[in-house]
Amino acid sequence: MKVPIRFTVNGEAHELAVDSHRTLAEILHDALELRGVHRGCDSGDCGTCTVLLDGRPVPSCLVLAPDADGTEILTVEGLSSSPFSGPGKLHPIQESFVARGAVQCGYCTPGIILAAHALLVANPSPTEAEVREALCGNLCRCTGYTKIVEAVLAVVRE
Fold first, then answer.
1. CA angle 109, 112, 115 (to 5 degrees)
2. Partners of 9 in the beta sheet?
3. Structure pTM?
4. E-strand spans in the chain?
């Protein structure tokens, strides 16, 4: 059964008719072609599909698309067009990840960057422990987290 939903994604209003059983991750990735919304486990365990839903990091594979009706969603694609960066420029957290080599395969990176961004909006001066806690829902199998935590803390210092 198709259900009409309206939401704002990366500052752009969308109105879609979606199957009631489809997840937000599926809609963002497949229907809106936002490829930064990666699908990993489809059970909320890995964090690769993390988006900001009304400012909160959530695994979008656990949100049914109809439940996102009326919300504001930010994906990694929208981060570079935020007030913190200029048009066509990377967001400072993205720049920090690149500069510090906090990416390897890159599959987990969009979700981690969004979780880090949400933390920095809520707490502009987090401790290392607070950064680690904020990122605990995002699994990275390549980096070991050291460079990721360094990249987040570097944004705080800059």
1. 150
2. 12, 73
3. 0.93
4. 2-9, 12-19, 50-53, 56-59, 72-74
The structure tokens listed for 8 are 């704002």
Stated length of the chain: 158
Residue-range domains of the chain with CATH: 2-77 (3.10.20.30), 79-157 (1.10.150.120)
- Residue-wise pLDDT for 93-135, tens only, equals 999 999 999 988 889 999 999 999 999 999 999 999 999 999 9
What are the residues whose beta carbons fall under 8 Å from the beta carbon of 17, sequence distance 6 or more? 2, 3, 4, 5
Q: How far apart are CA 1 and CA 20, in angstroms?
A: 6
Residues 47 and 42: their CA atoms lie apart, in Å, by: 9
pLDDT of residue 10 exceeding 80, the answer is yes
Cα 93 to Cα 3, 14, 84, 117, distances in angstroms: 36, 27, 10, 7
Q: What token pair was written down for 21?
A: 């059983």
